[in-house]
């Protein structure tokens, strides 16, 4: 503003006024952009969670996406894998590292897998803290009596997530996935982060199984999705792997106690 005041007092011609205006606006926007890019947040919102979790999971040599796919094809359980890799070998992004990858304007609720060797892979969208009706919406219809009829296997999900503070399910949306996360009343900040990590990993596995999924009928596809959810949850829970991830991220400078995944007041259910 001070520079603008100085310029205005010295510029008199019409052309010079417009040139000065454009130059000052460009300088103003450039400085604002540089200021925003220099910010390093230590909380995990949706975009930062995508970057951090996909980088961390991708560096864990105990994780082999092909194992989940081959397990479906052979109808066997995936290879059991305890957290044998030392944490020192994990690639743990710091807030400074993630700040360089963040986009100022990002698609809301986007679920992306980031890799150092390629551009981000769009997996779909994820909604966290939805109501029960929103959770069931993609696979439900209203009956004449006004009740909901759904193909989502709620009984199996309730059993699978009995010891967790959330439920999640995925619905195919063309070549990507629509993920819904239902939070229980016991949900905490760290359980929300685990839910997002679980959603990201499951969507990544399913996206790599596109050819297999195309051969499934509706019932077979739901079974495939539930099995994938179960197997990825088992992977995260083995040897408290998810807790180890959280501990490693905390040591790297991330504040894992700040809830930043929900952009508005979410719903909770008692199950």
UniProtKB/TrEMBL annotation:
Q: Which UniProt keywords apply?
A: Membrane, Transmembrane, Transmembrane helix
Tell me which residues make up the Protein root UVB sensitive/RUS domain.
1-57
What would be one Pfam family of this protein?
UVB_sens_prot
Enumerate the spans annotated as Root UVB sensitive protein C-terminal domain: 162-262
What are the annotated GO cellular component locations?
Answer: membrane
Q: InterPro entries of this UniProt entry?
A: RUS_fam, UVB_sens_C, UVB_sens_RUS_dom
Q: What is this protein called?
A: PH domain-containing protein
User: What species was this sequence derived from?
Assistant: Aspergillus bertholletiae
């Amino acid at each position: 503003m001070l520079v603008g005041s100085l310029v205005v007092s010295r510029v008199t011609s019409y052309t010079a006024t417009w040139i000065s205006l454009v130059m000052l606006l460009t300088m103003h926007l450039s400085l604002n952009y540089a200021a925003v890019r220099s910010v390093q947040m230590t909380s995990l919102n949706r975009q930062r969670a995508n970057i951090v979790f996909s980088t961390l999971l991708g560096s864990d040599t105990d994780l082999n996406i092909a194992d989940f796919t081959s397990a479906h094809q052979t109808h066997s359980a995936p290879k059991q894998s305890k957290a044998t890799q030392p944490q020192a070998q994990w690639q743990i992004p710091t807030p400074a590292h993630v700040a360089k990858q963040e986009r100022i304007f990002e698609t809301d609720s986007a679920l992306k897998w980031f890799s150092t060797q390629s551009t981000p892979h769009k997996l779909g969208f994820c909604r966290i803290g939805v109501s029960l009706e929103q959770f069931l919406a993609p696979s439900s219809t209203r009956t004449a009596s006004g009740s909901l009829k759904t193909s989502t296997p709620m009984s199996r999900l309730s059993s699978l997530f009995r010891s967790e503070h959330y439920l999640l399910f995925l619905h195919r949306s063309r070549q990507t996935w629509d993920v819904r996360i239902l939070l229980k009343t016991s949900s905490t900040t760290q359980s929300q982060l685990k839910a997002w990590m679980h959603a990201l990993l499951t969507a990544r596995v399913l996206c790599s199984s596109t050819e297999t999924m195309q051969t499934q009928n509706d019932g077979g596809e739901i079974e495939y999705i539930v099995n994938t959810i179960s197997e990825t949850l088992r992977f995260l829970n083995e040897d408290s792997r998810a807790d180890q991830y959280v501990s490693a991220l905390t040591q790297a400078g991330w504040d894992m106690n700040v809830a930043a995944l929900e952009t508005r007041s979410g719903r909770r259910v008692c199950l």
